TrEMBL record:
It comes from the Bacteria. Coiled coil: none annotated. Pfam families: PilZ. InterPro entries: PilZ_domain. GO terms for molecular function: cyclic-di-GMP binding. Residues 3-96 form the PilZ domain. This is PilZ domain-containing protein.
């Protein structure tokens, strides 16, 4: 098979979170590890299957060597992309040119804030869907 990659790939094993992107708040589909990464995409080593063309959101987690707390573990590169290949090696993903780099603690804080907000809604007896309508 001819290699059509335009960007150099680096063997880099990073933990990543794969989300469904076609929703307002994407559902976490699974956790995995990258096998290799480039500026244009990544190969995610997983036995999970997703359809080619499916839009995804990916958080690549970059760990600091001396972090003592999980929330101070380093950074996160947040990317949108889509599945371009699904085979025995894993999922090939292409990334859009837009990305965001943030601290892991910021990502954790956002998740906590959303969870807190949803819990308040639940405690007040308000259904989320009734507010959206």
């Amino acid at each position: 098979m001819e290699d059509r990659r335009q960007m150099r790939r680096f063997t880099l094993r990073l933990p990543c979170l794969i989300y469904e992107r076609n929703r307002a708040c994407g559902n976490l589909l699974f956790e995995a590890w990258t096998a290799n990464v480039s500026t244009g995409g990544a190969l995610v080593a997983t036995d999970q299957r997703l359809p080619v063309g499916m839009p995804v959101h990916v958080n690549l987690l970059i760990r600091r060597n001396r972090a003592t707390k999980a929330t101070d573990a380093g950074g996160c590169v947040s990317l949108n992309g889509w599945v371009v290949r699904d085979d025995d090696d894993g999922l090939g993903m292409a990334f859009s040119e837009e990305y965001r780099i943030m601290r892991t603690s910021d990502l954790f804080g956002r998740c906590q804030a959303v969870a807190h907000w949803l819990k308040q809604m639940e405690n007040e007896g308000k259904a989320f869907l009734s507010i959206v309508r």
